[in-house]
Specification:
Length: about 850
Amino acid sequence: MDGTDATIARAETPSPATGLRFSPGTMLAGRYRIVALLGRGGMGEVYRADDTRLGHPVALKFLPRYVLHDEGALERLYGEVRLGRQVAHPNVCRLYDIGESDEGHFITMEYVDGEDLASLLRRIGRLPTGKAIDIARDMSAGLAAAHDLGIVHRDLKPANVMVDGRGRARITDFGLASVADDPAAGFAGTPAYMSPEQLRGESVTPRSDIYALGLVLYEMFTGRRLFDGASLTEIQSQHRSGKPPSIASVVREIDPAVERVVMRCLEEDPASRPSSAHAVIAALPGGDPLAAALAAGETPSPEMVAAAGKAGDLQPRVAWPLLIAALGGILVIAAMTPASMLFSSKLLPKSTEVLEARSADILDRFGYTVPNAHTAHEWVLNDDYLRSMTKQKNGVDRWNAMAQTRPGVVLFTFRQSTRPLQPWNEERRIQTEDPPLDAPGMSRVTVDASGRLVEFIAVPPARDPAMPHRVDWTTSFREASLDPADFRDGRPVWSAPVDVDERHAWDGAIPQQKDIPLHIEAGAHRGKLVWFRVYGPWDQPPPLTDSPRKLLNRLADWANTILSIGVLAIGLLVAIRNVRRGRGDRKGAFRVSLFVFAAAAIAVFLRADNLASIAADEHLIGTLLGRALYSAAYVWVMYVAIEPFVRRRWPHTLTSWSRLLSGRFRDPMVGRDVLFGAIGGVVLVALQRSTRIVPAWFGLAPPEPFVTATSPFSSARHVVFFLLITFGQYLGAALGLLVALVIIRAIVKNAAIGNAILVVLIASAFAGVGSATPWMLAIYCGLSAATLMVVMLRFGLLSLAATAYIFQCLLVLPLTLDTSAWYFGRSFLGMFVIAAGVIYAFFIALGGKPLFGTPLLEE
């Protein structure tokens, strides 16, 4: 059917021989003055007219005379207006209303002063590429507007596309339009521009219009119709002849993007065509390939994700406040640490080096000087004492009292041995009880943070030819800063940790702390001190058997175990499936896992003690590398398992991450997202610290202060360990949040509800920090969860990983602004590394702009 639209380009004055229904000047319905015939076709005649009532030109479409009394044709006219007037878009010719005159019914519509695309193609042949792309984009936009309303045009062809005087395309003639998948629509359209399913008489969908759009685009870019059969049978035969020839085979130097989108529109299978006209717009040159892939139902490649979006650079007026907020936030957190964390300069008055020398001096005084001895030291938390203080002390200052109460919440242990100390824990780090004191020549000194002796143990030799002599117990009292006169003889009640042949016990108290009873026990072997220990009321023997756990606790343990194993197992199965189907970003997964492995390997070797002996033991090397390899493998599995799903659904969350993995370390978007991630991490830590500081403002007893790792106090290498090992650990945490988001949204099928559920789950995870009041805890948990969600949804995986990394580092590292504190150097090292990363992110986020914007003289 050759439907002629109401908006043909030029108004031609017909001759009397043409048999016009109306002559120029004829008035219709008391308001429309006929100007000229615009076109004539199988669907009727179209005239240009002036609306004398409103004073603007319109187009009037009349049915052919032979259907004036055809009720079906009249119904189609009404249907055209019913459907067509719903579409209000700059690239669709507007339909106004239906009028009636003595000559029958007519449609009033927008008059477009221009030329139909069919006439234009007959005049000039194929269009210039740039112009053709503009028209293609206009047609696709008009189709998209109709499809969004559920309307299928069914007769898209060059004759039904107008190009106005400004070069914009308008889709016209909705006379055959129908609702999508309408079985009653029937066989209708122009065969040369019908989709295969339309030619077979099947119901049509928006993808049927996409096929017709592809035919029109093919004609625009090549200057020839793809199907030019003279009859319906001949056109159907051309459809069955195979895949249509490519545009490149007809026209040289065609843009590959144009070729790709047109040939996809012409796929035989509707499911293989672009899913919408929006996808066509995005796939055209100058569009958004990422949006095109998503609209087409495809998973964009990592390279496409990296190339998507804007440069992401920041203006100096935005970047500077972010930098100041991040660096200032780190300093504020360091200032908040003494009031919110358990460890402070008051609780740790002496340095590691001083206590190490003090412990060696104690061993020397007890007669255990060993040339070239193997030594190690460790800061340990006095858990029994901490639990006791938590129960006994009340009020706002209950934690400040720890600085005056001995032995204190932190203890320092020093170990000495005549043979290399070989620990068996997975970190290969010498600890208080690992390796055990089971060989002659081993000894251990435990002092409090002020250097006062708390415990001494020495393993006696297997055979000692020396003659026994009397033990001077007062020496051990002096090393513990206790006066023997303040103690009375007592009864030994504790088992000696080593072989002794003489034992003694005393009971008493410290003069300054009469309310705290102390019990001291000591033992000697052949007249030589081998054991001394100061016991407080908080010291309790370990139970012979583990106390039975509550059913809920046992169920929770089993649930966590099953969940951990289940997540890893499911992740492994999904990762294998993605790799087999070519979905996984194996290149990116390899790079990130290689980085995690390198960082973890360096970290675990820094953490391990006695590297010289480890280097000679292949088993130990394998154990340490195995830990690093497991971390890398875990990240690889989870990344390959979840990354394709995120890339398919929310690819913009991976844009900066994909750029980083592709080696674009100086990309402005990478810097921007790391900078915002740093802000997120600082906010989370500041919120956490505030839960311990704010209660005192209201006169409330603050909760138990936060306890961080003690190993960074031992050596700077442990600070570096945490800075490195946290990369893999908290990248896994960031991926875990994305996994949770994917699963929850897949279950609830609603983004807003899914986000709300995840916020509740995250808030529940933060609730473990405790607080003085429920309302303060609720505020903290809610703000923390909201911060993570904003970072994840607004800036993506890279920002989320940066937030998690900085959050954990600032929690673990021993922060202080007190330059007189002996561990200030360790604090400075940690803050310097984090600040250096933030400053680097700031510089690359500017994208080469001047630090302070455009110089005044250049404005």
